[in-house]
Amino acid sequence: MYQTVKYTKDAGIGIVTINRPEALNALNSTVIAELEQLVTELENDRELRAVILTGEGRSFVAGADIGEQQPLTLDGGRRWGQRGSALMRRIEQLEVPTIAAVNGFALGGGCELALSCDIILASEKAKFGQPEVGLGITPGFSGTQRLPRRVGIGKAKELIYSGKMIKADEAEKIGLVNAVYAPEELMNGAMEMAKSFTKNAPIAVKYAKACIDRGMQMDIDDGIAVENELFAMCFATQDQKEGMAAFLEKRPAVFENK
Question: 18 Cβ partners below 8 Å, 6+ apart?
Answer without folding.
Answer: 4, 5, 25, 27, 31, 53, 54, 55, 56, 60, 61
